[in-house]
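[Discussion] Sanity-checking designs against the backbone

I'm trying to build intuition for which residues belong where. Below is a structure token string of 389 positions. I'd appreciate it if someone posts a full sequence so I can compare it with mine line by line.
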């Protein structure tokens, strides 16, 4: 079976810094609320998503604590939990990760976030310049991996010192929970080649994604390793292409030019991330040319840092675009959409049947056969009138 035939591994997103109907506007915005995150996680679990990404940052709820809570409310859902080297020691993170993998019965995935905002990192006690952060991450994950895989580790490194580190309890998954990672700089790609199981790219146009995949593959092969690939994208899927484009326009309909200018100025001032620079270059702060490749819309990046593009269209259109990425080697999608609860339903109900993924309809029988005409007070669906009744 080739990668184009195999269904995508499809994850959703927990918006731990808040959510809303209109980006860049307070109208119908939703605060970061643990109860709401549980609603999204339980919906994603039922709707056929394999997991959820939980980000990290000063404006986010803490990723490990939140994942532990959500694990208790879900059955199969995996948790792609952001881990930022340097905010705690590798030994401490190995304990956190092993315990979270144990309490969730093997449902932990880790997303390595080295960070691209020096001011924010300074607040966490991390003062290294861009490329040295990756040298630090290299030592961090040498210790983390050895410890979580074998129960002991030692390193007297330039950045990390772990003398006689021990881990009492192993994770459920062997040899350890998988490591995911995103970063577009040369240093990031060299790091990913040495350590990561799955390289995640932002939702760039297919030609740029193809280039990146080739570069990461070459770098990994030079180290005798093989890396899988995923993409981080928003989705605006509606029954028709026209409706989907209307929904995209509506999403930024309350966004003022001043808010866009302020967001772009803030990214330029605070970020040293190559990945962020590549996302901004797709639109350059202009709202008049947002379809940056067929059905790939950069409107979200006008005000949101990180994932700034959405696939927009009918289920068939979006499925065709996804197949283009799959043909390049992408096997995993980390998806989101505003607001995240309603859009989790839309993507599952509209898109999943087109891409061979099962939603809740495939998990539970709805009846023994013809559904009875009355009782329950539901909306009735396509009830057939049973003769004689
Ligand atoms: C899929 C994905 C998820 C990310 N999640 C986070 C996050 O939760 N918090 C964060 O601060 N940065 C996040 N990042 C940003 C990267 O971790 C990294 O800091 C940034 O890309 C800078 O690296 P670069 O200069 O090598 O591109 C994410 C990146 C990708 C591709």
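Best answer:
Here's mine. Compare freely.
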């Amino acid at each position: 079976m080739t990668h184009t035939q195999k269904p995508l591994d499809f994850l959703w997103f927990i918006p731990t810094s808040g959510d809303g109907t209109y980006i860049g506007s307070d109208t119908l915005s939703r605060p970061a609320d643990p109860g709401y995150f549980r609603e999204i996680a339980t919906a994603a679990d039922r709707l056929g998503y394999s997991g959820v990404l939980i980000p990290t940052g000063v404006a986010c709820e803490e990723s490990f604590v939140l994942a532990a809570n959500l694990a208790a409310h879900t059955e199969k859902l995996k948790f792609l939990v952001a881990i930022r080297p340097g905010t705690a020691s590798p030994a401490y993170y190995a304990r956190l990760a092993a315990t979270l993998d144990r309490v969730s019965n093997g449902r932990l995935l880790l997303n390595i976030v080295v960070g691209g905002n020096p001011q924010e990192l300074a607040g966490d006690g991390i003062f290294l310049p861009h490329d040295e952060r990756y040298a630090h991450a290299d030592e961090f994950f040498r210790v983390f991996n050895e410890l979580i895989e074998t129960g002991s580790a030692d390193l007297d490194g330039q950045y990390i010192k772990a003398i006689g580190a021990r881990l009492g309890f192993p994770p459920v998954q062997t040899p350890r929970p998988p490591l995911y990672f995103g970063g577009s700089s040369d240093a990031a790609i060299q790091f990913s080649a040495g350590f990561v199981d799955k390289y995640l790219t932002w939702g760039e146009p297919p030609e740029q994604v193809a280039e990146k995949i080739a570069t990461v593959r070459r770098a990994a092969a030079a180290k005798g390793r093989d890396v899988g690939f995923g993409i981080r994208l928003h989705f605006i899927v509606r029954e028709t292409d026209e409706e989907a484009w209307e929904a995209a326009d509506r999403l930024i309909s309350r966004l003022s030019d001043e808010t866009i200018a302020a967001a772009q100025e803030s990214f330029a001032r605070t970020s040293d991330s190559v990945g962020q620079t590549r996302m901004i270059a797709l639109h350059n702060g202009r709202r008049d040319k947002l379809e940056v490749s067929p059905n790939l819309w950069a409107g979200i990046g006008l005000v949101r840092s990180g994932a700034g593009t959405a696939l927009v269209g009918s289920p068939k259109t979006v499925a065709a675009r996804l197949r283009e990425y799959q043909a390049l080697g992408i096997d995993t999608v980390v998806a989101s959409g505003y607001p995240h609860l309603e859009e989790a339903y839309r993507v599952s109900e509209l898109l999943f049947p087109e891409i061979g993924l099962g939603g809740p309809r495939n998990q539970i029988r709805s009846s023994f056969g013809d559904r009875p005409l009355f009782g329950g007070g539901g909306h009735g669906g396509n009830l057939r009138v049973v003769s004689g009744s």
